[in-house]
Amino acid sequence: MKLVTPTVQLEKQYREMISEWESSGEHYVPFVIKYDYEDFPAMIEKVNSYRQTCDRGWVHHSSYWLVDEENQILGCSNIRHYLNHGLLNIGGHIGYGVKPSARRKGCATKMLELSLQQAGRMGITKALLSCDKSNIASAKTIQKNGGIKWRELMHEDELIEQYWIDID
Questions:
Q1: Candidates 3.40.630.10, 1.10.760.10, 3.60.20.10, 3.40.630.30; correct CATH number of 2-166?
Q2: Burial level of 147, CB count in 10 A (0-12/13-18/19+)?
């Protein structure tokens, strides 16, 4: 498995991943996979542009897809280059999600590991990650990657756990 920058060459695989997510009825995570993808090249350009530009109130961020040996997209991660006040209180540096059929196979742990390595190359030395307290699988993924629980807080009627991970 490896992380790749979103590309038009993986349109078929992306549409398959989104279709699977839609069929499951689950929320899309991270937020960038919620973007309209009907004009796929425009969506790719938009997603990749946030590395250099960002909308007011947002921070620069980079998105990656986790792909397997056959270039099937297993999930997506989004790395925020720095934290603003909002991300410090909810969200953190890295958001990630794995499509339903790829779960419970170590994909999330590997994707977070690779995302932390990428964050380190961006100059991030300590990453903040958040998850719903009820999302035990995500908490375990964060802990497997060195996450140390910092605090819990309420956000929109959901208890959120936050973790710090030192990046070597």
A1: 3.40.630.30
A2: buried
